[in-house]
Amino acid sequence: MKTFTVNENDAGQRLDKFLSKCTEGMPKSLLYKYIRKKRVKVNGGRAHEGDLLSPGDTVELWIPDEFFRDGRGSADYGKFKALPDIVYEDENILLCDKRPGVLVHLGDEGDRNRADAAERETLIYALTAYLVQKGEYVPENEASFAPALCNRIDRNTGGIVILAKNASALRQMNEAIRENRVDKRYLCAVHGRLTGERTESAWHRKDYSSNTVSITAEKVPGAKEIVTAYRALAYEKERDLTLLEVSLVTGRTHQIRAHLAFLGHPLLGEGKYAKNAADRKLGYSSQALYSAAVSFRFPEAVPGADLTGLNGRVFRVKSGNVPFLSLFPDFSPEEWFGSDVNGEKK
Questions:
Q1: Is there a domain that residue 320 lies in?
Q2: Residue 115's pLDDT band (cuts 50, 70, 90)
Q3: Does residue 346 belong to any structural domain of this protein?
Q4: What global pTM score does this model have?
């Protein structure tokens, strides 16, 4: 038998969700069977899968030890390769600049990236280790919560990734992302000349078996609409490249890469949705894409973590971290990045 005491990070979630996080390898059917058979108790009484947990509740699990984790002690986070650039940090969230080539976390079973990276090489491992060493996250004190990423970007895309330090911040940030209250701006280099500002729409369908997407002008079965807005910032005539600022009205898998390739302007280094043999001579074997700025709208405080301090603020990466900017000598980074001082109001 094992007993958990619900803390602030555990509170507010259903019992079945809590159990799925504090156990490991237990089939859902067995989890629900244990609840029905009264082998799970809340505050000493009978439990139901939909019970909402509150701080101070005790959860007793009369289940085999094999389903309990061996522990997530601090020693597990003793070493990591390198800490990414911290763009902003407070008691609730952390914004970091992930460099191209770093995997945010190990994918689901069957993801080809699992064979290419170890857990210690992922972004989430490095950030968790950082918080452990600061004493802000103590794994053995948490039954179901661990610091979590609120957004993810491709391995070979660089830019801002948001980490929530507690469950309240995670819920609020995820809700804000769903409600389009988190605005991200990307920089990318594309082939061909584009001018002005445009908003383009198309239809997007994902092939989960190959982890690729297809874009069509007309709706096809299984497709979802995408909307991509861009603004041309600079043009380099010799290489016929345009520097774009891109904003996603919708956020789908590989949307920027696939949509721009569909429009006839693939990203420099694009290897999945265009051929990049010539780009390799410029040193770009993967997409020239960077999530370079993010802003938030948290106008009102809600119970839990107070994120209103982020409202209206803009956070940017350092211009020197975006490698392909050097291809555009007429582009003035100061005009877009300002003084690289983060947190000013929009």
A1: yes
A2: very low
A3: no
A4: 0.84
